[in-house]
Design goal:
The protein is α+β, with helices and mostly antiparallel strands. It has helices at 82-89, 101-108, 133-146, 151-170, 177-185, 189-192, 199-203, 207-217, 233-244, 296-307, 316-321, 353-370, 374-391, 395-409, 414-423, 427-437, and strands spanning 41-44, 50-55, 61-68, 112-117, 122-129, 223-229, 268-274, 281-287, 327-332, 340-346, 443-450.
Length: 471
């Protein structure tokens, strides 16, 4: 939601800054000392609510995350954007919390809060002083049990979400790139439409739809509650049972038709003109794997070797230093379905997308034939470890990852094993996944041609990824 504290998108945790190599830099030594283990207490309430507790005494705060296993992939044709719209409605009050009181109570007690929606989940979170743990639990439980849905609140949030779409998609350069990418890469309706939805569908949302959505998906047996911070385990368990235990569970969640094919068909290429863009952009998606597939970790290492940090990426010299591009990034996106391996290139105003694509093909072919070097492998692992350690600095981030890994893979301990899996990747693994997944026929390329030649440039080579989440 807008105008609140933001969190980093979980799906982009492997995205690094613009790449740039320096052959003079000696090979980086991979630090194998383990990242401190995150403690995990994992259990369920009788109503099906999954609970993850992780005591952390570093600071006198507590972070609460409640993640529902519902996102835009659960929507039906004609009702796109509904998961995100409902996220907004969840802040409108509940049986014992009046309109605006959720924000006021948390802010007045030193807390921060937000909610986000992606294709695969909706999440709400708070970080509060440790002595306000029960306040955060009460607020989340009250809206899980009895959110206040009215026509006035629906009309108000429809207007808010419409304006959000205007600002982030319709009136923003490259704002529609994400929607074009989804339509071309994914083959099922569940993933082909954007989280924010179409303007028409948002406007057609009905109150009875909101009530049905709430009863179907906002149940304890479709949620994960994670608590990280300075608390006593028995106190936390007692409070969670007090506030969430009486909420009834529901029937099994309806299945979705979201099975994506393992391969692309023929290396499709799509071109469109963005009337608000001044410079060309090229985005290529290779069809990858689920985030818990054994090959995912080698794809993460490969993406890091291609993109790098500063001047350390394989693609910097042939693209940026040669002045074919202003910037380039690569990332293995992490999803519950066959996820895109994404390479994105920002071009100068006079840049030639065809030359960029030729260069990408040539450099990928080199890796498929020769692999990457030991120095590149070592550096990529070091960058991944540094990035991962930085992500785990706060209780809020830990809570978010624990909730995501539990919801996506039923594996909260992934937070403790991710880097060891990345660190086990070999040179042969990287070469193998490059040949397996980065074949031209297994890709979709989207080219954005600028349509606003006289507009002031606002790209600056920034190839940051289009938002996977709606706030």
């Amino acid at each position: 939601m807008p105008n609140r504290f933001h969190k980093p998108a979980v799906l982009l945790l492997t995205a690094l800054a613009l790449c740039v190599p320096s052959l003079a830099v000696p090979p980086a030594r991979v630090v194998t000392r383990p990242v401190p283990k995150v403690p995990i207490i994992d259990y369920k309430l009788e109503n099906g609510l999954r609970v993850i507790l992780s005591p952390d005494k570093v600071a006198p705060v507590v972070s609460l995350t409640v993640m529902y296993n519902v996102g835009s992939r659960n929507e039906k044709p004609g009702k796109t954007g509904f998961a995100h719209l409902f996220e907004h409605l969840m802040f409108g009050g509940s049986e014992n919390v009046g309109k605006g009181e959720h924000f006021a109570l948390l802010s007045e007690n030193g807390g921060s809060y937000n909610g986000t929606t992606s294709q695969e989940r909706t999440v709400y979170y708070e970080t509060v002083p440790a002595n306000q743990m029960n306040l955060a639990l009460f607020l989340e439980a009250d809206r899980m049990r009895a959110v206040d849905l009215t026509q006035d609140s629906l009309d108000r949030e429809i207007a808010v979400v419409k304006e959000e779409r205007r600002q982030r998609v319709d009136n923003e350069a490259y704002g529609s790139l994400y929607e074009h990418s989804l339509r071309q890469y994914f083959k099922t309706f569940a993933y082909q439409h954007s989280t924010i939805g179409s303007m028409e569908d948002i406007g057609n949302a009905k109150l009875e739809d909101a009530m049905s959505f709430y009863k179907t998906y906002y149940r304890p047996n479709n949620a994960v509650l994670v608590l990280v911070g300075d608390f006593k385990v028995e106190d936390a368990k007692r409070s969670i049972r007090k506030y969430f235990g009486p909420i009834p569970g529901g029937p099994p969640i309806p299945p979705i038709d979201g099975i994506e094919p393992d391969r692309q068909e023929s290396g499709e290429r799509f071109v469109y003109t963005d009337p608000l863009a001044k410079m060309p952009r090229v985005r290529r998606y290779y069809r990858g794997v689920r985030g818990d597939h054994p090959d995912f970790y080698a794809l993460q290492v490969l993406a890091t070797a291609l993109s790098g940090r500063g001047k350390t990426g394989r693609l910097y010299e042939p693209l940026v230093e040669s002045r074919l591009a202003l910037g380039v990034s690569a990332v293995a996106l992490e999803m519950q379905t066959n996820s895109p391996f994404q390479i994105e290139v920002g071009l100068p105003a006079t840049g030639d997308p065809a030359k960029v694509e030729e260069t990408l093909d040539r450099e990928i072919a080199r890796i498929q034939t020769d692999g990457i070097t030991e120095s590149e492998l070592s550096r990529a692992k070091t960058q991944l470890r540094t990035s991962w350690a930085a992500h785990l600095q706060t209780t809020g981030a830990k809570a978010s990852y624990l909730a995501t890994y539990t919801t996506y893979y039923n594996d909260p301990d992934r937070i403790n094993t991710l880097f060891s899996r990345q660190n086990a990747v070999t040179l042969d693994d990287v070469k193998r996944v490059a040949n397996t997944y980065l074949a031209k026929e297994n890709s979709v390329t989207i080219v954005v041609n600028p349509g606003l030649a006289d507009a002031p440039a606002n790209n600056n080579g920034n190839t940051g990824h289009s938002p996977e989440e709606a706030q």
